[in-house]
Design a protein that fits this description.
By secondary structure, the chain is an all-alpha fold. The chain folds into 2 domains: 71 residues, Orthogonal Bundle (434 Repressor (Amino-terminal Domain)); 51 residues. The longest helix is centred in the C-terminal third of the chain and has 31 residues. It starts with a helix and ends in a 5-residue tail after the last helix.
């Protein structure tokens, strides 16, 4: 593993654990700071450890090791956010929920139109006057 690749893996580990420093990361991973330091010296994180972390945080090994794809832990965060949002929506009156639904549909319609406009602009090969 190159130094650059190791640094990227370390950053993704910090994202997973919500940490910012090496000291915080070692605590969050329940490893000693010396272990973390030895990984840096060797330019390597043990694969078995990465597998354990991926399972624990429900993230993709491709994402953790290579930065490819999307981390599944974002889906977990989204699930919590969605659950909170649904709980809040359920407290509203049916009229308020309907109004929110209309705003969401309008926003989605605008996004679709913007996407189509971008595709048309790319396809025509010309710029607007």
């Amino acid at each position: 593993m190159s130094t650059h690749a190791l640094a990227a893996v370390m950053e993704r580990l910090k994202q997973l654990t919500g940490t910012h420093t090496d000291a915080e990361l070692s605590r969050a991973l329940s490893i000693s700071p010396q272990t973390l330091s030895s990984w840096k010296v060797r330019n390597s994180v043990p694969y078995s450890f990465c597998v354990e972390i991926a399972v624990h945080y429900a993230c993709s090994l491709d994402w953790l090791l290579l930065g490819k794809g999307q981390a599944a832990f974002f889906a977990q965060e989204n699930a919590e956010w969605e659950s909170d949002l649904l709980g809040r929506l359920r407290t509203l009156s049916p009229t308020d929920r309907q109004a929110i639904l209309l705003v969401i549909k309008d926003k989605q319609r605008i996004q679709l139109l913007e996407q189509r406009l971008t595709e048309l602009s790319k396809g025509s090969g010309s710029s607007a006057p």
